[in-house]
Prior knowledge:
Blueprint: H1 38-57, E1 61-62, E2 65-66, E3 68-71, E4 76-79, E5 82-84, H2 89-110, H3 113-118, H4 120-136, H5 139-147, H6 152-178, H7 183-191, H8 197-217, H9 219-225, H10 228-235, E6 242-245, H11 247-250, H12 275-278, H13 299-310, E7 318-321, H14 323-326, H15 336-357, E8 362-368, E9 374-375, E10 381-391, E11 397-404, E12 410-412, E13 416-419, E14 424-433, E15 442-451, E16 454-466
Antiparallel strand pairs: 1-2, 3-4, 4-5, 6-7, 8-10, 9-10, 10-14, 11-13, 11-15, 12-14, 15-16
Helix pairs in contact: 2-15, 4-6, 4-8, 6-7, 6-8
Amino acid sequence: MSEQIPVQDVTPPRPKPAETVDLYASREKIYTRAFTGLFRNLRMAGGAFLFLLYFGTVWINWGGHQAVWWDLPERKFYIFGATFWPQDFVLLSALLIIAAFGLFFITVFAGRVWCGYTCPQSVWTWVFMWCEKVTEGDRNQRMKLDKTPMSGAKLMRKTAKHGLWLLIGLATGLTFVGYFYPIRDLIPQLLTFQADEWAVFWIGFFTLATYGNAGWLREQVCIYMCPYARFQSVMFDKDTLIVSYDPRRGEKRGPRKKGIDYKAQGLGDCIDCTMCVQVCPTGIDIRDGLQIECIGCAACIDACDTIMDKMNYPRGLISYTTEHNLSGQQTQLVRPRLIGYAMALVAMMSVLAYAIATRSLVELDVLKDRVLYRENEQGRIENVYTLKIMNKAQRDLTFVIQADGLEGLVYEGKQEVHASAGEVLSIPVELSVDPEKMPSSTNQVRFQIRSPDDESIHTDAESRFIGPSVR
């Protein structure tokens, strides 16, 4: 009897249906809880100062005009007694570079404190959240209100909230435009419907931008739209101050009654009340470790310290600390990277201060006529120029004009001119020289201007004096 070969089923198994992965998670609305504490008071004081600076500076007059005024049509920029022109934009570039290095220095030292305390997005968001609390109540009341169907009371509360948001947005937009269009003229023109169309457009734009960013987008701006949230982690090191939870002290979490020996039950100081989560404006749980969404506002520190006080536990379960400190190592506050940023900042600020202090208050441009040269009745070679003299001071000045560079050079034209504050003069002048005293067909000449009203105001500019070929 022959042996039979066993038959095996080699049919490949049917593949499992592919799982669908949703790459987009719908936003969950964050309901922040009201709280008190040291860092909240610091943030409120800083926010009040920034609001006073932003909304108040635009109303200050200086030298007969607005103290801070970016007059775009006239291309003049007034900043507390100093007038800057487009030619001075290199100073603005330097100022922006210094601000960037200052932000780098602060980030290396103390993480995202800029975001938590002084960023306009954060400051306006806290104000808008205060409007929510005033009109709709605290966290639990707002959550309950959103779940109830629309009613007259709910409509009134929502309308009041959005009305306050729009009012703050309007004040913000109006003030911003006021730095470019004198606000003392802008408001009456708006009330009488005589304002410029572009001014109205930009007021509306910034009103809606403020309303949308601080009212609706909020943490979405910090998490997804702000580039600083993406590259700030590159500047962190293990000695950077960060808001962090101490797991060695807090774990194991769990509720407990006040006064019991929770250590005997293996519990840490964290009672798992989630207050740190409820006050967070970005909705994160700081106990999960350092996260990109954390803006360093220290709201969780204030909330946790309040709970620790109630439980008679020491404060600092959540605190400003460093990774080295959390791991039991010593923190080095002074380190090479921090010193490097500090030295760069000091150097750049010194150079900028020197450049502003020595900035000439008169600008001179020399434009040569398209006719290369001509011979006058005396047989002398003449060149014609137009001098553009810009008085960059905020007062009227007199200027004396001179020219040199060639032996026997004769200057013909106005030798003394008067320029009002901010005025640009066009002065036609002629230079002539004996052809026998010209060393070459192309020669350098220099125009000099100085003010007898102020000897520190002077400048010069070079140009060419062209004549026939010298054999």
